[in-house]
Amino acid sequence: MTATVELMKCACEKCLCIVNVESAVNKDGQYYCSKACAEGHKTMTGCGHSGCGCN
């Protein structure tokens, strides 16, 4: 039997979001909730999800 991970924490260290791996932004094998998190917040701040304080 193989376990399949469907939900996981966004790979952005400061982000609190839980992402569905099917719809997440996949960068270098890591899953992010937004393009801002995936790019390491170099040009974009926050992830756009209410209640999350990543920047």
List the defining traits of the structure above.
7% helix; single chain; mainly beta; two-stranded antiparallel ribbon; 55 residues; two-stranded antiparallel sheet; 1 helix
Protein model, in words:
The protein has one helix and four strands, in the order E-E-E-E-H. The radius of gyration is 11 Å and the shape is globular. The longest helix is centred in the middle third of the chain and has 4 residues, at 35-38. It has 55 residues and is mainly beta. The mean pLDDT is 92. Helix content is 7%, strand content 22%.
On the 0 to 100 scale, the average pLDDT is 92
Strand content: 15-25%
Query: Total number of helical segments?
Result: 1
β-strand number: 4
In spatial order, strands of the major sheet run 1-2
Catalogue the unreliable spans: none
**What integer value in Å does the Rg equal?**
11 Å
| SS content category | mainly beta
- H and E string: EEEEH
Overview in brief:
7% of the residues lie in helices and 22% in strands. The protein is mostly beta strands. Strands 1-2 form a two-stranded antiparallel ribbon. It has a two-stranded antiparallel sheet with strand order 3-4.
What's the layout of helices and strands?
Layout: E1 7-9, E2 18-20, E3 25-27, E4 30-32, H1 35-38
Antiparallel strand pairs: 1-2, 3-4
